[in-house]
Amino acid sequence: MIYHPGMPRIIPLILALLLPLAGHAQEQTFAEWLEELRAEALALGFSAETLTALDGIAPLERVLELDGSQPEFVQTFTRYIELRVTPNQIARGQALLREHAALLGDVQARYGIQPHYLVAFWAIESNFGSATGGFSVLEALATLAYDPRRAEFFREQLLTALQIIDDGHIPAERMTGSWAGAMGQLQFLPTVFRNYAVDGDGDNRADIWNSLPDVFYSAANFISQSGWRGDERWGREVLLPEDFDYSLVGTRNLKPLAEWREMGLRTVAGEPIPVADMRAAVALPAGAAGPAFLTYNNFRVTMLYNPSVFYAITVGYLADRFAGAPAIAHMPVNETALSRVQVEELQELLNGRGFDSGEPDGRVGSRTRAAIRGYQSEQGLIPDGHASMELLDRLRD
């Protein structure tokens, strides 16, 4: 799903626990709120016919459940990759690249997005269009807009969704998507659709649900305008030198490739990394025990679709596999997920030893990673800042 400021991210457990209270803070009934929204939409010039799509809609309890849910375990990098990059997915992607070669070539000529990357986004976002979400976008967005916590953001999304219907892109009954209102084979939010959707097949509609030309042209338009470089790859797996400074890990630590090469970074074949006029950052999705990646500009563009290192690596890696590249060489062995309760325990233990991880919340953010690095350095461990079961067991001793 494309990230947009204000859209739902992982919500702290306390908000999930307070979710029932949020409804009590709403002074209007849903019916009153909906009539107010209808009046605003009429004032904006939407047709009365379009607004009949609001008739009979009601808050969806399942949307609120999903909005407030907290997964029990933090998914490991190994598991994340295994679920999304499979032999079947690779074979399907390669077959679809051949099947749609002419269309993808036209899209590349216009936007500069290499076909194997575009198909990788398509695969990860909606399983090649087969998993676009079964919620009514209008009902999901109305549910979230009525909830006071992010009402303004989702009200804009809902009004924009009505505009999309009013403009004739999709009938209301066919406007389906995720519980958060992400739509179609691209999982565009309505405002992203408004800004980037393209009519690729010439029928004066941008149908990202059913028209592959519209799907590919719209995705390529967004990716291109986000800064994609069509003559560059996303990154590569590398080997780090034994004396590597792990404080340099992270997307903000951009350095010229020549500088990384001088530090001793090598390809997985053991050769010095190639040098070009590019800047890169090091990513360690599974800590020092897992693979290391040099990530380039297109990796950072991918994170505008979803601000997750796991996601961005997976899109790039799947694209590489479509093109015949080998599997990741140094996947971790027996990687174990920490539950949120265990992450909270880890944070409490770090705080107790004088390494400030902030208020324990079960989420591994930059403050917790910094605390982990401090503890690891004190203990003579590799300071990769990675939260692991091994680290938790050591802190328990």
Q: How many domains make up the coordinates?
A: 3
Largest beta sheet: strand ordering: 4-6-7-3-5
Helix content: 40-55%
Largest sheet: 5 strands, antiparallel
What oligomeric state do these chains adopt? single chain
Description:
The protein is mostly helical and 397 residues long. It folds into 3 domains: 1-225, no CATH class; 235-317, no CATH class; 340-396, no CATH class. 48% of the residues lie in helices and 6% in strands. The chain has helices at 13-25, 30-43, 48-51, 61-68, 77-84, 87-99, 101-111, 115-126, 137-146, 151-166, 190-196, 212-225, 257-262, 297-302, 309-322, 340-352, 366-378, 389-396; strands at residues 135-136, 176-177, 235-239, 255-256, 266-267, 279-283, 292-295. Helix 7 (101-111) packs parallel to helix 12 (212-225), helix 9 packs antiparallel against helix 10 (151-166) and helix 11 (190-196) packs across helix 12 (212-225).
SSE order and pairing:
Blueprint: H1 13-25, H2 30-43, H3 48-51, H4 61-68, H5 77-84, H6 87-99, H7 101-111, H8 115-126, E1 135-136, H9 137-146, H10 151-166, E2 176-177, H11 190-196, H12 212-225, E3 235-239, E4 255-256, H13 257-262, E5 266-267, E6 279-283, E7 292-295, H14 297-302, H15 309-322, H16 340-352, H17 366-378, H18 389-396
Antiparallel strand pairs: 1-2, 3-5, 3-7, 4-6, 6-7
